[in-house]
Design goal:
Length: 165
Amino acid sequence: MGAMHRVEQFWRHSAGRIQRVESDRALEVLGPNLYPAFATLPRNERRHGLDVLATVDRLETRPERLLRQAALLHDLGKARSGMSVLDRSQAVFLAAVSPAVLRAYLRLRPGFARRLARYRDHAAVGAQHLRQLGAAELAGIVSEHHARRPAHPLTVRLQLADERN
Ligand SMILES: [Fe+2]
Ligand SMILES: [Fe+2]
């Protein structure tokens, strides 16, 4: 995929609106304990979760509630990285141009490099948050959602849906 195409895709996702019926669906899937963690995410993060949920619902006949929850919340940790939308757009662009260009840029901007490192930790950060909310099994799935060989069978199905968004 070309660098400009990646940036376009990124901005398309950042700008997406959210319909009332989608927020209602998120509340129904997550319940009152987990919904606030979703509702307080930036809009582009909520948009991504809802898109992954829609893909899960399209791919699966009767998806488990846990899988649908993971679809909505798997990238929860990204919002805590301190990366602005502009930062992320830049990182996506530079990484798509070449890893060497990205490395050179990170040496010039240590603050950006720190935020990017935290952003790349988003699976662990999100899992920790969910554990604090008492959602241990969901936390397990979120913690491994970028793993090559995830332990939980639902994680593989989450990855399939995430890849399409
Ligand atoms: Fe992720
Ligand atoms: Fe994702």
